[in-house]
Amino acid sequence: MTTVATMIPHSRPAIEQEDLQATVEVLRSGQIAQGPWIERFERDMATFFGLQGGVAVSSGTAALELALRALKIRAGDEVIMPSYVCPAPWLATQRVGAQAQLVDIDLQTFNIDPALARRAITKRTRAIIVPHMFGLPADLTALEQLNVPIIEDCAQTLGAMEQGRPVGTVGRLTVCSFYATKLLCAGEGGMVLSNEGALLERVKSLREYDGAPTLDPSSFNLKLTDLQAALGLSQLGRFSAFHERRRFLAAAYRDVLSSKSAVCPSVPPGRTHGYYRFVIRVPLVRTDPEGLMSLISRLEQQGIHCRKPVFRPLHRYLDQSGFPNSDEADRTALSIPLYPDLTEDEVQQIQQSLAEVLS
Asked: pLDDT confidence of 175, banded at 50, 70, 90?
């Protein structure tokens, strides 16, 4: 098979003329650090979720750490989280001195299994971090019944619904990421949102130390810039169009894959999917000596850059066992390019390559 010259990337930000105009306006203003654009971005993101307020910070990982600190989680405390997720929740938990309690996922949804989360609760449990994976909300209805403070990690899921409720509106705190390839792109950055004013004020006091009446050794410099906020605001204005495009592309992929050896993303009753990623499972790769990487290589030879959606489950880093669903996802889950500015020619190329490789 001949390797093609042009590669369709796994991710690509949708940058339009209005994004350029917004950032140029900030540059020309001379106010490029934290300022009025940040305040507007925080206000508009809170309105988007239907929450009281938000606090913009330098990254999604920083948002997770400040959310934990706002809940006064510290050494000796435990925080429940799924193993099948990027390292950010674990890193944030380590930085506040707490211990991460890993649990397995529901393989059909890639989200944390509420029944296993219940079993992980101890007298030292202080919170549960709930990532909504790949665009699909976790089972918030079941997780609420655990009576443990929830931090919703919406880095991969915005605009989706669970039992008629938007993601981000159930937990005591919600965090977002605005990394270059996320649903809303600001290049980098994050935000903590909540309906509890006291928690928001605590996050603000931790985000920065300038102007504080006292010295607080727990304060940081984790601010976002107006330049990033302007880009984020411009993207937020087009979120509905982004969302609809992702749903359209997901339907196009399903049409091709419905008769192939792949398990398409599940959407349980009462939930909607935002399709940050289109993640399929390919059980047949278990019989290939090279596994998933062989499939990824074959698609790359056809000009399609696919990836494992999670580089490595957390329990694998920590040499823990007892996570069969996370292990199965690690062996068989494949993320296909899906983002708003995929061209029709690119979509057709992806469809054709998937049909051939998975036939």
From this structure: very high
Helices (H), 208-267: 226-236, 239-257
Alpha helices in the chain (DSSP H): 17-29, 36-49, 60-70, 88-95, 114-119, 140-144, 197-207, 226-236, 239-257, 292-301, 314-317, 324-332, 344-357
Backbone angles phi, psi at 295, to 5 degrees: -65, -45
- Kindly report the backbone phi and psi dihedral angles of residue 249, in degrees, each rounded to the nearest multiple of 5, phi listed first: -65, -40
5 belongs to a structural domain: no
As a whole number of angstroms, the distance between CA 304 and CA 94 comes to 37
CA separation for the pair 118, 147 (Å, rounded)? 10
pLDDT digits (tens, 9 = 90+) for 236-279: 999 999 999 999 999 999 999 988 889 999 999 999 999 999 99
* For range 196-224, the mean pLDDT: 90
Same domain, 253 and 301: yes
pLDDT at 3 over 60: no
Q: List C-alpha distances in Å: 262 to 165, 180, 223.
A: 30, 29, 43
Residues 6+ apart with CB under 8 A from 52: 46, 194, 195, 196, 197, 200
Residue 56: give its domain's CATH number.
3.40.640.10
Chain mean position to CA 93:
17
What per-residue confidence (pLDDT) applies to 1?
A: 44
Together in a domain, 214 and 127: yes
Give every CB contact of residue 230 below 8 A, 6+ residues apart in sequence: 22, 23, 25, 26, 37
Last residue of a domain, one of 236, 265, 288: 236
Given the structure tokens 């934290």, which residue do they identify?
A: 34
Instruction: Check: pTM over 0.90? Answer yes or no.
Output: yes
Which residue pairs from 297-302 have beta carbons closer than 8 angstroms and sit at least 24 positions apart in sequence? 298/1, 298/357, 299/353, 299/354, 299/357, 300/3, 300/7, 301/1, 301/2, 301/3, 301/4, 302/1, 302/4, 302/349, 302/353, 302/356, 302/357
Could you tell me the residue range of the domain that residue 299 belongs to? 239-357
Q: How far apart are CA 339 and CA 242, in angstroms?
A: 8
Question: Does residue 143 lie within any of the structural domains?
Answer: yes
- The total domain count for the chain is 2
Radius of gyration for the chain, computed over Cα atoms and rounded to the nearest angstrom: 21
